[in-house]
Amino acid sequence: MWERALVAIFEDPQLAASLALRGGTALHKLHFSSPRLYSNDIDLVQLRPGPFGTTIDRLRARLDGWLGVPRREQGQGVRLVYRFESEIPPVVGLKLKVETNTREHFTVHGVTKKPFTVASRWWNGAADVTTFQTEDLLGTKLRALFQRKKGRDLFDLFVGLDAGISPAAIVDVFRAYTKAEGREITRAIFEENLAAKLRLPAFTDDIPILLPPGTTFDVRKAGDDDPLRRR
């Protein structure tokens, strides 16, 4: 369902001009050569400051008709949570989160367009998805690794490094974003933060259920080789 939702959003010219996809879904579905992590939340960023009411109405006009009425949550932005049932047996309850950060309009390397196509037995569609450059996505992943307790952020960073993205470029973006927030995070502060998280089961146990069969990732081992240390 997330694939169809992504096409529905970005085939709309107004939404494609005002929103950009960020986060794990953007990395694994648009930037990496093959997805290596199960990720289906849609994380959006409002590209320019201004009222969001018209945009959220347009988002819902594109999605509600076939996903139903969402639960709306307010925080750093606006989150729409859709609940529905799978189309193939066994029928199970599913959830799709479409969250838009309406407060951050900063970018280091700007936005780009990535083609995205869905071809299945149930639905076909395509759109050019507005997203950020890979370095920006990984720089904000590094920030997420500092801010929250999810091992998936560390995994995403290592996939990016394996894809050849410069560690220095990632760190530069991270520092630019945190500077824009009025914060300075030193290497010592970052490493202390990560070391504390590596002792938390909630952090280390976050990733295994999201990996495809045959893929393994040692979170604790990876934590000893974080991108800040590679610079």
Order of helices and strands: HHEHEHEEEEEHHHHHHH
Helix content: 40-55%
Q: Which range does the strand content fall in?
A: 15-25%
Overall residue-averaged pLDDT value: 90
What fold name goes in the CATH topology slot of the largest domain?
A: Nuclear Transport Factor 2, Chain: A
**Shape label:** globular
Determine Rg (CA atoms, Å): 18 Å
Q: How many strands in all?
A: 7
Distance between the termini: 39 Å
| Spatial order of strands in the largest sheet | 1-2-5-4-3
Alpha-beta classification: alpha+beta
How many DSSP helices? Answer: 11
* CATH level-two architecture of the largest domain: Roll
Query: How many strands, which pairing sense, and closed or not: the largest β-sheet?
Result: 5 strands, mixed
Query: How many domains is the backbone divided into?
Result: 2
Q: Ranges with pLDDT <50 over ≥5 residues?
A: none
The CATH class assignment of the largest domain is Alpha Beta
